[in-house]
Specification:
By secondary structure, the protein is α+β, with helices and mostly antiparallel strands. The protein contains twelve helices and 14 strands. The structure holds flavin-adenine dinucleotide (FAD).
């Protein structure tokens, strides 16, 4: 199918973007990598009168490290994210997740900002930024505000972006020396959206974890932090009994809606399998 006709603008500054958004309101859509938006236009799920192409804003495509913060511009492509030495060093969880996103052609166009703004509940990067405790920079005509990633995702394909605002950057505190991370997902074929996935960030303490944020995706309306399982896993040394107790505790954390991939029970089972794999990988150092 072909999209409904639309007008196209490619502004050269953020000020021009905000001006266009103010003038066209709901009739306008931001175009980043186009890897989700163009599909929705082609399927006529959306018919904006104007596309505002932000690919000319090179300042949004940078990755920098300064003042103890890793700053990733919203226009950084998935492929650039995975290849960045700064990301690999300071936020390896993101680099580990990238190969699971779709296929190389899509990763070469899709952007981190587009993925977060689209807020697909089965997407990898939303779960990663929540696990990493990222701050998201949202910019509008009156300036920028920062929001913790966990407050950004407000529902199924819903975010805290206000009308007229753009997601401009993702900021992460630089990783502590004892930080560790783990990532895995179960999909029908490599490159498909996950049936269930898990991104986890933490720090080790002796034979266990001092801190742990396990965030599941594909099991709810957005990223789901497994707080009950984390409480079990950080309460003492990791052994088989503790891991089993954490897997059991996932029943308190997750209430997966049944979907094409399986029943709620099947998805909870898959989440328990993933938790075991990821935590053992983090504990043995093979996941960080
Ligand atoms: C076949 C296929 C398979 C895929 N598989 C996966 C997968 O396994 N995992 C996964 O995570 N993704 C997958 N994707 C989606 C891909 O990762 C997209 O790149 C991503 O979801 C959207 O990024 P984009 O830059 O292409 O955004 P676009 O498609 O350009 O935009 C998406 C939405 O976000 C808005 N938007 C974009 N940037 C901003 C911004 N900076 N501020 C405010 N709003 C903004 C747009 O207006 C639009 O509503 C797949 C896509 C395809 C086509």
């Amino acid at each position: 199918m072909k999209p409904a006709p639309f007008a196209y603008e490619k502004p050269r500054s953020l000020a021009q973007v905000f001006d266009l958004l103010a003038r066209h309101g709901d009739e306008a859509k931001i175009l980043a990598g186009g890897q989700s938006l163009i599909a929705t236009l082609n399927m006529r799920l959306s018919a904006p009168a104007l596309l505002i192409d932000i690919n000319g804003l090179s300042e949004l495509a940078r990755i920098t490290v300064a003042d103890g913060v890793l700053r990733i511009g919203a226009l950084v492509r998935h492929a650039a994210l995975g290849a960045s030495a700064e990301v690999r060093r300071h936020a390896p969880l993101l680099a580990r997740a990238v190969p699971f996103i779709a296929h190389p052609a899509i990763r070469s166009r899709g952007t981190i900002g587009g993925s977060l703004a689209f807020a697909d509940p089965a997407a990898e990067l939303p779960a990663c930024v929540v696990a990493l405790g990222a701050q998201l920079e949202l910019t509008g005509p009156r300036g920028a505000r920062k929001l913790p990633a966990r407050a950004f995702f407000t529902g199924l394909y819903q975010t805290a972006l206000a009308p007229g605002e753009l997601l401009t950057a993702i900021e992460l505190p630089l990783g502590a020396a004892d930080a560790c991370c783990g990532f895995d997902e179960l999909a029908r074929r490599h490159g498909d959206y996950a049936m269930v996935g898990l991104a986890a960030q933490g720090s080790r303490a002796g034979a266990g974890f001092a801190a742990l944020t396990p965030v599941f995706f594909g099991v709810g309306s957005g990223p789901v932090v497994a707080r009950a399982a984390a409480a079990v896993l950080t309460a003492g040394a990791l052994d088989a009994a503790r891991l089993l107790a954490a897997q059991a505790a996932l029943a308190e954390d997750l209430d997966p809606p049944p979907d094409l991939h399986g029943s709620a029970r099947t998805k909870l089972h898959l989440a328990r399998v993933l938790l075991g794999r990821v935590i053992l990988g983090m504990a043995t150092g093979s996941s960080s």
